[in-house]
Amino acid sequence: MSKGEDASIRRLIKAKIPGKETGIEIKKGLCSICNAQCGIDVYVKDGRLIKTEGTLENPVNKGRLCVKGVSNKQYVYHRERIRSPLLRVGEKGSDRFVPISWDEALDRIALRLNEIKEESGPESVVFFTGFPKWLRPFLKRLAHNFGSPNYMSESSTCYLATVLANRLTYGCSFVPDLKNTKCILNWSSNPYYSSAPQAINFVEALERGVKIIDVGPLNTTLSRQADIHLRIRPGTSGALALGIAHVIIEEDLYDREFVSNWTYGFEEYRAYVKEYTPEVTAKITGLAPQEIIAGARLYARTKPATIVTSASVTVHHTNGVQNHRAITALIGLTGNFDRPGGNHVVPTSYYHRATGFDTREEEFEQTKNWEEMAKRIGEEEYPVWSRFIHEAQAVSLPFQIMSGKPYPVRALVGFGVNYRMWPGSDFMKKSLERLEFFVDVDLFMTDTAKFADIVLPASSSLERSELSISPSRYAIWTEPVIPPVGDSRSDVDIIIELSKRLNLNDPLLSKGHEACLDFIFEPSNIRIEEIKKHPGGLILGGFPRTPYEKYKKTGFSTPTGKMEFASVILREAGYDPLPVYREPKYSPISTPHIAAMYPLILTTGARLPMYMHSRMYRVPWTRGLRPDPMVDINPKDGEERGIKQNERVVLSTPRGSIMVKANLTEYVPPGVVNMYHGFPGADVNELIEPDYRDPISGYPGYKSLLCDIRKSNGGDL
Ligand SMILES: Nc1nc2c(c(=O)[nH]1)N[C@H]1C(S)=C(S)[C@@H](COP(=O)(O)OP(=O)(O)OC[C@H]3O[C@@H](n4cnc5c(=O)[nH]c(N)nc54)[C@H](O)[C@@H]3O)O[C@H]1N2
Ligand SMILES: Nc1nc2c(c(=O)[nH]1)N[C@H]1C(S)=C(S)[C@@H](COP(=O)(O)OP(=O)(O)OC[C@H]3O[C@@H](n4cnc5c(=O)[nH]c(N)nc54)[C@H](O)[C@@H]3O)O[C@H]1N2
Ligand code: SF4
Ligand SMILES: [Mo]
Question: Which residue ranges form the domains of the chain, and what is each CATH number?
Answer without folding.
Answer: 3-76 (3.30.200.210), 86-159+350-539 (3.40.50.740), 174-344 (3.40.228.10), 592-711 (2.40.40.20)
